[in-house]
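Side project, low priority. Logging it here so it doesn't get lost.
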Amino acid sequence: MEGMPRSNHPRRRPAKARGAAGDGEPDLNRVRMGVPTTESAPDGVWAVRSITAGNAQKTYTCPGCHRPVLPGVAHLVVWQEDALFGADAGLRDRRHWHSNCWRGRSYRYR
């Protein structure tokens, strides 16, 4: 029985190809972290993503109060959608804010 295929099942796609954009499978990191909302303010258009306490694993400094955002504390990740040097630059300059600091922020330029 030489020459017969070992299986009639199609080969699986490599793991790298599965989950790629456009193939219908969700990106699990994006699903876990949530989809950012967009907020317009006098100082620009901002993408705001909520981070749950379970996903907060590092210490950051909140730009609103200059105090640490500790691991295990729910907070927001914020970046400017209409950044001067483009969306990629805005994403690179994202900051982690306490939720109350973001809601109560002033629109003064720092």
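Brief comment: The chain has a mean pLDDT of 79.
Revisit when time allows.
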